[in-house]
Amino acid sequence: MNVYIPNLSDLALVHFGSKNLCSMVREWAGANSFAPLESCARQVWAGHSSTFKDFPFNEAEQDISMLTGSQAYQFALELLTGLKSERVGENHVVRQFREKWEQFRSEHPSLEEKLRPYMEALEKDIGQIRSKIIDHIIPFRYQKALQIVSGQSKGDKILVVGHMAKTGEPSDDMKETIHFLGNNRNGRPLVNEIAVIAMNVSEAKAICAWIKTQQNQKRIHPDIIINVIDKDDLAIAVEVYDRFYMTSTLGKNIDLEEELKFAWKKRMKTNNTITLLRGQPELRGNTPEDWVDMKASGVRIAEDIWEALGQIKTHNSKLVSLANEMIEFCCRSREAGSSPQYKNFKVDKACLSLQVSVSPS
User: Fold this and answer.
1) The domain that contains 55 carries what CATH number?
2) Among candidates 108, 97, 101, which has minimal Cα distance to 40?
3) What is the pLDDT of residue 92?
4) CA triplet 337, 339, 345: central angle to 5 degrees?
5) Domain assignment of residue 313, yes or no
6) Counting Cβ atoms within 10 Å, is residue 219 exposed (0-12), middle (13-18) or buried (19+)?
7) What is the C-alpha separation between 343 and 186, in angstroms, rounded?
8) Which of 9, 103, 126, 255 is deepest in the core (most CB within 10 A)?
9) Given this model, what pLDDT does residue 342 score?
């Protein structure tokens, strides 16, 4: 069913430069009704054009701007599709909005009735913009680039190779990698099994104790199997595990690196990969040639991860530009008083997917 907007010029948004409100604005808010659209980083109030007729714009001692009509509608779309978020394309902001809108609906039914056509239109446009474009944005994170470069897929068995910090616990890089792999926030584990190399018995005990603490704190998914294995079992490990992540700075544990290289060259399994997260300080953080020479055997170097991040950034920028074009397309239709004909907004499917390529050895 098409959604029609009676008069777009009646929509008004007030955008605050800060989430800290001055006393005059707080006083006005206590005496008036409006719809909150704010996110974690922004404070935005929505209303009918008559909602803000007595708002103290001139007297308030803070940065405030007001948008009306198509500009207000466009701003709302940009905000609720995550284009104004620090993590571009995230959907937390629209979930926040829906929760607050339900509360607003019950507390201010008369204003909610006036704003309902706009909000229904926003929901419809947001759904289309997300499904056509926004949902194809790739998280711009080092860990995501690492996952892509390594070839990691759901259900893989991962071996983490690293070192212990002076505190007696795993290094920060090792912890960060295990947390990423064992993430319990979304309820769906990225991997089936994680193993960690221990150089000796005391290290094994320390790693086991840290892992148990993380599991008790629910920072690691309960369904993931986590093992601690001895470095002498590397020859077996390279045949069992799908992905290896070397979290230590190269050159920090030369003996372990040499054993890993030897085992890797002798392995029978050929579809697994080992990814180096750090280069060597003496080479300004770059990867030594002896590791680079092994790229044909499934070695992925830190430079590959940075290259992938650049490709992800370019990919996302193109999609953001495309999303802004679709937002303008929706706004033109809404301004004319009709629902957008989404099928008329053509999207080249080739630009929606990203095949990360890294330089050969």
Assistant:
1) 3.30.460.30
2) 97
3) 85
4) 125
5) no
6) middle
7) 33
8) 126
9) 94
- Nearest Cα neighbor of 48 from 35, 36, 29, 63 is 35
- For 293, the 3-state DSSP assignment is coil
Tokens of 89: 């394309």
Which 3-state string (H, E, C) describes 33-76?
CCEECCCCCCEEEEEECCCCCCCCCCCCCCCEEEEEHHHHHHHH
Coil, helix or strand at residue 186: coil
Closest CA to 290 of 267, 270, 260: 260
Looking at the structure, tell me whether residues 324 and 205 fall in a common domain: no
150 is a domain residue: yes
**DSSP per-residue string spanning 83-109:** TTSSSTT-SHHHHHHHHHHHHHHHH-H
Taken as a whole, the chain contains a residue count of: 361
Q: What whole-number distance in Å separates Cα of residue 133 and Cα of residue 306?
A: 24
Tell which residue, 1, 24, 7, has the closest CA to residue 72.
Answer: 7
Other Cβ atoms within 10 Å of 346 Cβ, number? 7
Instruction: Return the structure tokens found at 84.
Output: 């104004």
d(C-alpha 259, C-alpha 245), whole Å = 15
SS3 (DSSP) at 225: strand
Q: Report d(CA 316, CA 307) in Å as an integer.
A: 14
Residue type, 194: I
pLDDT score at 346: 92
| Sign of the dihedral through C-alpha 244, 246, 250, 255 | negative
Residues 115, 160 within the same domain: no
Could you tell me the end-to-end alpha-carbon distance of the chain, in angstroms, rounded to an integer? Answer: 56
Number of domains in the chain: 2
Q: pTM here?
A: 0.86
Q: What residues make up the domain containing 120?
A: 8-137+318-337
Task: Select from 92, 152, 91, 118 the least CA-distant residue to 35.
Answer: 118
pLDDT at position 4: 59
- What average pLDDT values come out for the chain (361 residues) when binned by 10 residues? 68 87 89 82 85 86 88 94 90 85 86 87 95 94 93 93 91 92 74 92 94 91 90 94 95 92 95 95 93 95 95 96 96 90 92 80 53
The pLDDT assigned to 269 comes to 96
